[in-house]
Amino acid sequence: MTRLFHISDLHFGLEDRAALGWFETCVRREGPDAVLITGDLTMRARSHEFAAACDWIGALDVPVTVEVGNHDLPYFNPVARFFYPYRRIRGIERLVERELDLAGVAIVPLKTTARAQWRLDWSKGWVTEKALAKTLAAIAALPAGTTTLITAHHPLVEAGTRGRALTRGGARALTELAAHGVAAVLTGHVHDAFDLIERTAAGPIRMIGAGTLSQRIRSTPPSFNELRIENGAIDVRVRNIEAVPTPDMQITDVPPDALPPRAPDEPVAPIHAVPSVDPPVH
User: Fold this and answer.
1) Does any domain span residue 38?
2) 105, 185, 180: which is closest to 147 by C-alpha?
């Protein structure tokens, strides 16, 4: 059995120190095979925020993979954003990432961020043809029978959460990933957990979203996903600092408006996850 901890949206600069300390304790006590981080290490991509994130990740002392989130691109420096937007995050990846040796399981990244877009909100997701082609090529190179997990920052289609990704090219990417036999797509960005099945023209594909370990909570307390993978089957448990049961932490269904809406004022799908109040911490 392979056991993975999936975390996202740490937002160093506005991190939740209690949540990070709780997660560190879980890692030390339980020793997962790897920790997968699906973006937004920082709040504003400042050098001291990346340094703090790097120190924290290094102290976990387990194999780690890191994807880039929209908050990890330069925020205050337009020259850096346009000419070398990934320099700091790639530097962090080189420092903290360790090669994963997972029997029968592969983690393949998919970039969903962009330095600029033809819309006002550049925080939203975008799967370019180049990014998708790179991911599909990596999948094609894997041995037959590998359980393949994709790690990205933005949900590829909407998942009923309060936060929205509005990922351009996401539905097309999901269809291609389903056609290539991907077991699940792991994402962050929306700060609430989900474990959903999206139907595509190439068949169903699983979407698994992690919550946040920052102060920027939305509908649920700080949390991470524990994934147990055995014989191709994936079991997901949402672990949270307030010990809320997994079903109450997760969105229950892909909403009817799963594709990005054309009108910016289209209403958001209702939130189904309901956090409980002040249970004991475990």
Assistant:
1) yes
2) 105
pLDDT tens-digit readout, 247-277: 999 988 877 655 544 434 433 333 333 333 3
Amino acid code (one letter) for 255: P
Structure tokens at 30: 């339980």
Asked if residue 83 belongs to a domain, the reply is yes
Tokens of 31: 């020793």
Report how many domains make up the chain: 1
Residues 6+ apart with CB under 8 A from 262: none
Tokens of 155: 């949900």
Beta strand 105-109 pairing with 147-151: parallel
Q: pTM score, two decimals? A: 0.88
Q: Which domain holds residue 246?
A: 2-251
Domain-located, residue 274: no
Q: Does residue 59 belong to any structural domain of this protein?
A: yes
Distance separating alpha carbons of residues 154 and 15, to the nearest angstrom? 19
Q: Give the CATH number for residue 80.
A: 3.60.21.10
**Which residues lie closer than 8 Å to 36 by C-beta, 6 or more apart?**
4, 5, 6, 7, 64, 65, 107, 149, 151, 186
